Amino acid sequence: MAAQPSDGSRNSDQAEQPADVRVSVGLAPSESGGAPEISKEEVDGHYYRPLLQAAFKGDWESAKRFFERDSASKTAKITSRSETVLHIAALSAQDQFLENLVELLSPCLEALEMVDCNGRTALHNAVLCGRIRKVKALVRSNPKLTQLADNEGRVPLAISSLEASMHKEIAWFLAKSTTNDGPSNPFSGPSAIKPILDFTYSGHHDITLYLVWRYPHLLTMKNTNYANPSILHVLAVMPNQFPSGTRLSVLEALIYKCIPVDLNYKPTDKNSDPLLQYLTRSLWNAAKFVVPIIKRVHEVKLRHLSAAELAKQVCIAISYMNTTEIAQFIEEGLLFQATSRGIREMVKLCIKFFPELIWISPHGRSLMAHAVKFRQERTLGLFLKVSSTSELSIVPAPTWEESNDVMSIAAKYNPKFDAVTKVAGAAFQMQRELQWFKAVEKWIEPFVRIVTFDSKSYWDIFVEQHNELLEKGEKWVKDTANSCMLVSTLIATILFAAAFTVPGGNNGNTGVPLLLGEDSLLVFAISDALGLFFSVTAILLFLAILTSRYEPQDFLESLPKKIIMGLCFLFLSLAFMLVAFAATLTIVLGKRLEWVLIPVTLLTCLPVALFVALQLPLLYQMVKSTYGPSIFRAEDIWK
Question: Domains of the chain by range and CATH?
Answer without folding.
Answer: 7-183 (1.25.40.20), 478-627 (no CATH)
